Amino acid sequence: MKTSRMFPDQSDIRARHAGLVSGSQRERWLTLAVVLALAGLALMAVVRLEFSFARLGSGLVQLGTFLGLMVPPTPGTQLWALLKALAETVAIAFLGTLLAALIAFPLGFLAARNTMANRVVRFLTRRFSDSIRGVDTLIWALIWINVVGLGPFAGVLAIMTSDIGSFSKLYSEAIEAIDRKAGEGVASTGGSRLHAIRFGIVPQVMPVLISQTLYYFESNTRSATIIGIVGAGGIGLYLAETIRTYEWDQVAFIILMILVTVAVIDNVSSRLRMPMTPPNTSPIASHHDRKAALALLARATLAELADPISRHWPALAVRELRKPEIGLAMLRGRMGGDGAAFNLGEATVTRAVVELPAGQRGYGQRLGRDIGAARLAAIADALWQDEAERALVERDILAPVRERLAREKAQARAETAATRVDFFTLVRGDA
Amino acid sequence: MAHAVPRLQDHQVEALSAAYRSAQLAKRRTTLVGVLLLAVLILLAGRVAEVDLAKLWGNAHQLTSYLGRIFYLENGKLVFTDIADWYWGLGRWLSRLWDTLLIAYLGTLLGAIGAFFLCFAATVNLAVNPAQRFFARRFLEFCRTVPEIVFALIFVVAFGLGPVPGVIAIMIHTVGALGKLFAEVVENIDMKPVEGAIAAGATRWQAIRYAVVPQVLPNFASYALLRFEINVRGASVMGFVGAGGIGQDLIEAIRKFYYSDVSAILLLIIATVMIIDVVTERIRHRLISLEHGR
User: Fold this and answer.
1) Residue A73 burial by Cβ neighbours in a 10 Å radius (0-12, 13-18, 19+)
2) Which of residues 194 through 253 in chain A touch B, CB cutoff 8 A?
3) B99/A contact by beta carbon, under 8 A
4) Domain of residue B175, residue span
5) What residues does each domain of chain A span?
6) Using one digit for the tens of pLDDT, what is the confidence trace for B12-45?
7) CATH number of the domain that residue B258 is part of
8) How do residues B198-212 score in pLDDT, each as one tens digit?
9) Which of A14, A214, B55, B89 is the most exposed place for a label (fewest CB within 10 A)?
10) Measured between alpha carbons, how far is A148 from A430 in angstroms, rounded to an integer?
11) E strand map for chain B
12) What was the pLDDT predicted at A278?
């Protein structure tokens, strides 16, 4: 056999590394026990719930007939009524979600560890939302029908009630997951607890809450399609009716309508959930470019800075806000599978801050002790901020540095590639 | 400190504060438009959904009186005073509740098995071809978009009354919901073991068995447990459409105004769901720590 030629001592290897080949005995028994328990319970369920092949068979045959009758789907004579019911369904989901969000918002703060110090209040709020969540929307619909009568309003209230439970749990989890520094900052400047919540916590959690609420709106549209089955408005009423009267072509049409509506709402809500990008007009927008420029300036050599600056701006009146100074900066690295941070060591860093007559301030920072280069880098940064000079800085200072860095990187790569060992070839080579 | 704090020059201050003002104004305008839009939508939805606040206000006492009434026995005493009378049908309800749990269990198990075999076809990294992926994804979407109770309604007609249609309905919904979650898990695996297995001559399913399953099993089990918890809740209302379980007794009690029975059954359901919630969460935490520990 081919394999035995490649691994001549298969049985020997097996014997020597029994633990690797077959796993531990205990683990095997455990797996077997779990699988047997699952299967045993399933078997018991099958017997108790009166599954039988005869029943499944005849049911599947019936189902096949129904499927045949479902094509082509038609709205029958009630297209208008169906559309109205569909609008009602979406309205129920929308209002129910919104009301639930409004009510659950304060509850979320009451149930979160970092905003509610009182354990009793927290415990009561949590158990309250848990028991509300334990009851299905359909049951709530039945209860609300007793209060406001049959119709979509009962549906709105049912969706609202069952969502209050879910939302206050989700919201409190989101609130507990935030960065507490912002709230502490507000408190340290003399803000009250409510101020800390309003300005330190709410801005952080709002996007999360909105996106979760939108997600629920989508799933509530699905729930709203069925509460009509018990008489709480929406398209479910028609669905249950047409199923009971065996009008399968209309059933298929209604299901298609539901699918399309859910898909549309899914699409809309996922689009709304995307973080909205701010328009490109704020002064912050240029930060990205400036960061790139500063990174290049930090790597430029003295000559690369001095030559163009003395050539283009020979008589520049620079005010030194912070004279070039040399100090140490701690370098942190991340390594290992979990990316834990560790201190690599300290590096010498030189920095300088200058101001031009027009008022722009430039910052220069670089590794090493080159005082002159740090000062020139700061000047170049200040010049870069002047819209009129930027193009010149880009062309004569930044572009050459960028080219040199790319060249050096390519060379380093080429050198590394030359010494690369292709392990794959090595293994396959003598086979 | 000897350092003087440098001040920005006036024209700079002006430019910056103008930028701040305009940014703030733009933000306020967006908020205002959003609020107005929301208000219009609320009014529109309120009309369509026949929201009648006067009716709610007028009937609000009915909710409290209803909630009050379900805690009184026929003879006018509070339920807590006579537990035996309150839970007169405990044996029958517990048996129905056990049915409900079994419906959820069997539906989840069969659904998870189905989702397992379908999920690989719906992934970017393990589907045989884009066409297969497309159809697998659409099928899963269909399964989870149609609510399980709608499937149950149809299956009750096809398979007859009883728990069988409930199990099948839950199974189909579970295939859709778990299939999507499973596929997401599979898409996040480390592909190196798969490549290794295939390089050593494994077939697709062999590669899945030896290179994918060990990576995803804890996550799969955790999602299946989460689904079981959701399905218990879903199975509790299957009886509303005649598909077995405790829902049958509950809807009967609500419809026929057996007030104390309503509270008794509801509390049973809530307690069961909470216990399952806690137990599955424990197991899930262990499973997840198992995965992180490897």
Assistant:
1) middle
2) 222-223, 225-226, 229-230, 233, 239-240, 243, 246, 251
3) yes
4) 89-293
5) 79-273, 302-418
6) 888 889 989 999 999 899 989 989 999 999 888 8
7) 1.10.3720.10
8) 888 888 899 999 899
9) A14
10) 83
11) none
12) 40
Give the tokens for residue A131: 């028991």
Tell me what pLDDT residue B1 has.
Answer: 46
Q: Provide ipTM, 2 decimals.
A: 0.79
- Mutation site, A7, A83, A88, A153, interface B, largest B CB count within 10 A: A153
Sheet with A361-367: list strands edge to edge.
A319-335, A340-355, A361-367
Is B78 inside any structural domain?
Answer: no
User: In the block, which residue shows the tokens 């290794």?
Assistant: B196
Residues of chain A contacting B155 with CB distance shorter than 8 Å: 59, 63
**Encoding tokens for residue A97?**
């979600």
Residue A365 φ/ψ, nearest 5 degrees:
-140, 140
What kind of fold does domain A79-273 have according to CATH? MetI-like fold (1.10.3720)
Residue B130 lies in a domain: yes
- Encoded tokens for B192: 């190196």
Cβ–Cβ under 8 Å, residues A234 and A96: no
Task: Output the CA–CA distances (angstroms, integers) from residue A57 to A65, B104, B159, B164, in the order listed.
Answer: 13, 22, 9, 12
- The candidate with the shortest Cα–Cα distance to B205, out of B106, B258, B126, B280, is B126
In 3D space, the residue among A306, A317, A303, A323 whose CA is nearest the CA of residue A357 turns out to be A317
Residue A142 has pLDDT above 70, yes or no: yes
The confidence score (pLDDT) of residue A275 equals 55
Give the DSSP letter string of B205-247: HHHIIIIIHHHHHHHHHHHHHHHHHHHHHHHTTGGGGT-SSTH
Token pair 């026995």: residue = B73
B286: in domain: yes
d(CA B209, CA A395): 58
